[in-house]
Amino acid sequence: LFAFIVFCISSQAGLKTTIWLAKTCLPGKLTVFEARGRLISDVTINRLVYRHNDTDVWLKHLRLRWQGYKLITGHVNVDKLAIYKLYITLPKAKATKTDKKSPIHFHLPIQFNLKDVNVYHVKLITGDSQPFELQALNLIAQSNGQVVTIKRLHAELNPYRLETEGHVDLSLTQMADLSGRFVKLEPKNKTVAMDYQLTGNDKTLLLDAHVEKPLSATINAVLKNVLESGEINVKGNFNQFNWPLNDGEIIQVDHGQLTMTGTQKHYQATLNTHIAGTNVPSTSLNLKGEGGWSAFNITQLKAGLLGGTIEGQANIQFAPALSFDASL
Prior knowledge:
- By secondary structure, this protein is mainly β.
- Helix content is 7%, strand content 65%.
- It has helices at 2-10, 12-25, and strands spanning 29-38, 42-52, 55-66, 75-90, 111-126, 132-143, 147-157, 160-169, 176-184, 192-200, 204-213, 216-224, 231-244, 250-263, 267-277, 280-291, 295-305, 308-317, 323-327.
- The chain has a 19-stranded mixed β-sheet, covered by helices on one side.
- α1 (2-10) crosses α2 (12-25).
């Protein structure tokens, strides 16, 4: 048996034998148009198709160059991994009950060194849910089993772009120190671009961000219990805030503070700030409210401007269309 395994992973003939065994044992139909190399060191696969009931896998190209023999010592060393055009369709997953308040803990039983990972055009469809589409992923990273060091991560998921580097400690403290750039591409000057630094642990994260588009701002925020599903606990300060409007008009904010607590479905928020700008009088603004995905209800609004005070309440609907109703 040992000799047969060595034969399968260390020779071209063994690769073909492994594919034949997969075709024989898998419940669906597997077709591989071209496969060459050795599984233990360098293997290339072109045009792989697998179909079984509601599961479909289509792969145009895969190239893996690695040191497979080091798996015996608990190490994964990948010199090069290239995947081009991978489409996966899976049946709808069965619903399972989970404890939303349970924190997530990770553990890597192996050490890895990924020197060059490039993935392009991946689409994953599960049931009738929205497809997950990854346009590009470039990764250089390594781990000693406890600390993951990201030397380079570039990901493109339209309309998002993310670049980051740093390290994450997967021990009980789950410390993180990451920095990079985030971009959301939108038409009509609605593109969002920011540089960020994220430090902390699974209980408290500190975010320092410098936003460039569609406004300019410096944001310092504290994010608490970020790994607890659905919970929001954010306290942020911002300054040098400039929001461009139509025809060259600009709203300026010297400083402000935003606090949000609750869950994604129902949260409370307070905002204290001072605004001014082109054709906008100098105004101090304080508001409190609560809301969710589709609406936000301002329960207390107070604005000081032009030597007087405006007080009131308002309800803002985000869906199906943006609308508001205010009482001042």
